[in-house]
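Not sure how to ask, but would you mind making up any protein sequence you like and the tokens describing how it folds?
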Amino acid sequence: MTIGVLVMAYGTPTTPKDVEAYYTRIRHGRPPTPEQLADLQRRYNAIGGTSPLTQRSADQVAGLAAALERHRPGGFDVRFGSKYEPPLLETTADSFRDDGFDVVVGLVLAPHSSSMSTDQYMSRAKEALGANVQFLDIGAWWAFPGFLEIIAARVNDALSGIPDPRRDTTEVIFSAHSLPEKILESGDTYPEQLRESAERAAALAGVDRWDIAWQSAGRTPDPWIGPDILQVLREKRALGVTDVVSCPIGFVSDHLEVLFDIDIEAQGVAREVGLYLVRTTSLNDDSAFMTFLANVVQDRVS
């Protein structure tokens, strides 16, 4: 029996002309104001016009499929579905159902889970698949053996570029996408997951000085989880930190939240306050990461 694997991610506009429709979907059908649209387009323009997330996700899906094929030839059919950009996850779920799959595994390309993010992907996929398809959802996978070792290696690679005399005043800042504070009212463990994953990754990397921060908060009136990484960078410099390794542990590929929010916005603040900031390289379709994800999927069906 071939098992379906529904790989899910947030999605991104494919071309500049798709930005407004994408933004409208994110806002649940409410078109953005001209100012909001211009601001998002400005950020995309700063990284080349569009985000590379579409290609990065496609590469990850292909890499995962290849890794699973090596382990179990013919055992898995891997397909992609997005939350906000075609192919939508419901469309891909429909394709599995229509093709007669009995079992489908759901995997979100995000290591931490939350009621407002990954749980929404899973509920939408399960509903689309219907009662006749067994849906095996994979929740937070940051603690599965192998992931934090990959992160720790990237932290050490970044640290290797900082001269030894400054290591004592160097700090690693692990970050993830902020979410509205209202998720905390229901006991959502998302913040605890970030802190624990950061703590364990730092220990594996042999790092004593580290902290967490939040990034990429939405532009809404509601309060979002903080502190924001831009604020943290200013505070660290005031406390005598000279160098920072930025490790966006909550993201698995190069896209707007990394290429703009860290490489441009956070880097700009770092230069402003006199910090040297270096970012860990993104996972993308790294072979070790693809093998790790294949192990996660296989563990779920075993």
The first strand starts at residue 3 and ends at 9. The beta strands are 3-9, 76-82, 103-108, 134-137, 170-177, 210-215, 243-247, 276-279. The mean pLDDT is 97.
